[in-house]
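Thread: Bacteriorhodopsin, structure

OP (GT): Posting the sequence first so everyone is looking at the same thing. Length is 241 residues per the record. Can we get the structure tokens written out before standup tomorrow? I want them in the notebook alongside the other entries.
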Amino acid sequence: MRNFMFIAGSISKLSPTDYVGFTFFVGCMAMMAASAFFFLSLSQFDKKWRTSVLVSGLITFIAAVHYFYMRDYWTSFGESPTFFRYVDWVLTVPLMCLEFYLILKVAGAKKSLLWKMIIYSLVMLITGYFGEVIFKDSAALWGFISGVAYFAIVYEIWLGQASKLATAAGGEIYKAHKILCWFVLVGWAIYPLGYMMGTNGWYNGFIPTGNIDVVYNIADAINKIGFGLVIYSLAISAQKD
Ligand SMILES: *C/C=C(C)/C=C/C=C(C)/C=C/C1=C(C)CCCC1(C)C
């Protein structure tokens, strides 16, 4: 009994009134469930689609592990686990760029497209981290630079090379690409809103205040699981052709 109590005591407790901690907890469970779903579905796909679905599972799995630690960090210290958050993003966002490349490969996507998107995403995240953690006094400036990199990604997939490849591919690939484009334009736009809630800048007057972690947690669930499901449905429908 004593040992048990020791173990229970050493795991930081989630208070029933801690709604922020609750979103970390639910986020962790949702990411774990999604990973199991994607991994267990792998054997039904042929080689061509297996990699894409595998990457969907890796994205939610990496997030599940980070959410496990972020929940504990939040309940232990009552502070935003910003470092873990950005480590998670630096791993998962490039994997989401990889998903675009993987589905467009059949239409002749080149490695250079993949690298371009990965570099944009890293610039977006590293400058975001600078503004949120290291150079807080100039958060608005770093957020702006990050926003430019974000729009470079939006441009690339909606109007640039990636969009031309999707049009050339046509059919199910075109449809899936379009849905992923909407995720990036609308779902990813939640993040800069969270950033503006949590940092000081000219925007403070008209951005509602609230908990930044709740915003990021909701955005992660929508984007990581949603993205994976789009890839999963594409794999299902494309396999029938
Ligand atoms: C799974 C995690 C995802 C899809 C994370 C995406 C993160 C962003 C799109 C973050 C964007 C930001 C800006 C556009 C400006 C302010 C700083 C950031 C990093 C929050």
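GT: Both are above now. Quick notes for whoever picks this up: Residues 2-240 form a domain with the Rhopdopsin 7-helix transmembrane proteins fold (CATH 1.20.1070.10). The chain is about 80% helix and 0% strand.
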